[in-house]
Amino acid sequence: MSDASTEHAWVDTHCHLDAPEFVGVLHDIVSMASSKGVRAILLPTVQASDWGRAKNLVNQYGNQIPGLVYALDIHPLYINQAQESDIDTLKNQIEQSLDDPRFVGIGEIGLDYFVEDLDPQRQEYFFHAQLDLAQQFQLPVILHVRRSQDAILKALRRRKVSSGIAHAFNGSHQQAEKFIELGFKLGFGGAATYDRALQIRRLLQDLPLESIVTETDALDIPLAWLKEEGGQFNESALLPRIAQQLADIRGISEEVFSKAVWQNAMQALPRWSSLMTNNPKPQSAS
After folding, report:
1. Which domains does the chain have, with CATH numbers?
2. What distance in Å separates the CA atoms of residue 191 and residue 249, rounded to the nearest whole number?
């Protein structure tokens, strides 16, 4: 097995670096990711109380990860802690963040019809209100799509949201095509490392390469090999190994895959691309 970690520049389009589990070890987490060739990481927030810390975090560690960026949001799993007034607060935060080159969009937002104790109507209120903000400020969105593909597609068609990422995509091929038609990229990561993930692997093989981006969703999505190898948790430093498996499933070289997913991520989030124009990625991590 070749060492993907030192050969290519990688982009993690979804990593919760502000997770409580990373407190106290964040410097090591970021340093290890950088040493493995991860040159860009997107930190999606989940609730209003996270926004300030996320902004501080990406500016603190941006010297180690040139493409370390954040998005602002109210996550569907956190709507029970949210207040409707948080939408106005979010609008103000977006306005204040537009001059920050490390602010790239709104997310992670969406609908989750898997968790039973979440009120669907309340979810829809926060999701639709945030889509309206995305349209108002012409910002891309990072989508949480769990058993809600058709409902999210319906909401997107009613608005002019130009681009974004459907994170941890696990829908049908037809649904994938509809997201792509609306200008979205589809996130793939740790779930594909499992042999039983046949649907996800078929999508990886069949969808246009220009529609795919890489992610860890650290530390939420476990990896097939992590427990048996004694790993503590998923993190961005493991992205090159994940991506290596994705490239193998796709049947292409790591070099072709890394360049494609980098370009796709930058296309999905234009403010990210602008940041990297001023902090250009190396062709390799060496």
Report:
1. 8-278 (3.20.20.140)
2. 13
